[in-house]
Amino acid sequence: MKKRVASKQVIFAIISLVLGFILAFSYSAAREKLSGAPPVSNRQYLEEEQLRADLIGIQEKNRQLQQELFLQQDSLREMEQEFSKDTQVYRNMVEDAEKLRMYLGKVKISGAGVNVTLEDAEYDPSDPNVNNYIVHERHVFKVINELYIAGASAVAINGQRISHQSYIVCTGPVITVDGVQHPAPFVISAIGDADVLLSALNLVGGVKDQLVNDQIVVKLEQNQNLTFDAVFRES
């Protein structure tokens, strides 16, 4: 009798254990179906955490790069502003260099300007010293200097261009310019603003008045078509 009761208890225990396992499995399956998502393993969780951390790092790097871009754009604008200033400086330097070449006689030049003609005065029997009424190099220098001061770009004597190395010597009734002799009258031509050049020469007590006081015949006129070739010298 006791054996039969013990057998029944064992059977009931086994049945209870099986039912408990079935109920637990059914509960777990129903929970997964209700949640709509499969269970996440520990490995998947770690991978998701790493991806999330990588995404945050990329976003932070993008913010840093964007900030650097803004700084580079500001620097570029500053460089452009400085370049625009430098461009004007370079343009001015080029213009100055071209003006210097013109003054040195290194380039051909054409334009409007003036002609200043200097002639010896008529012979005066009462004054036996001929030097008192002929054109000397000092008279020519006065005209040339005044023309340059007034803004002339280039000057020539009887068509021979003057350069920074030119020399003028008076030899009796002729003037020697860089070794070339020129008889009177002497036509000093200058390229520049004709009105300004003529005004400078015609100042009261200025160059023209001084030349007239030295018995020099002075003639001033505008010339709209002057051309001076470049000066070439052997080194």
Give a written overview of the molecule:
The protein is of the alpha+beta class. Among the domains are: 2-39; 109-228, Alpha-Beta Plaits, CATH 3.30.70.1880. It is 53% helix and 20% strand. The protein contains five helices and eight strands; from the N terminus they run ααβαββββββααβ. It has helices at 2-35, 42-104, 137-149, 194-201, 207-213, and strands spanning 109-119, 154-157, 160-161, 168-171, 174-177, 180-183, 186-191, 217-228. The strands form two sheets. It has a five-stranded antiparallel sheet. Strands 4-5-6 form a three-stranded antiparallel sheet, with no helix packed on it. A hairpin with a 2-residue loop joins strand 4 (168-171) and strand 5. The model is unreliable at 1-6 (pLDDT under 50). Residues 48-82 form a coiled coil. It holds the Pfam family DUF881. Keywords: Coiled coil.
- Strand percentage: 15-25%
Calculate Rg over CA atoms. Answer: 52 Å
Which sheet architecture does the biggest sheet show?
Answer: 5 strands, antiparallel
For CATH, the homologous superfamily of the domain at 109-228 is named as Protein of unknown function DUF881
- Count of helical regions: 5
What is the helix fraction of residues, given as a range? 40-55%
Inertia-based shape: rod-shaped
Pfam families: DUF881
Coiled coil: 48-82
Keywords: Coiled coil
Family: Belongs to the UPF0749 family.
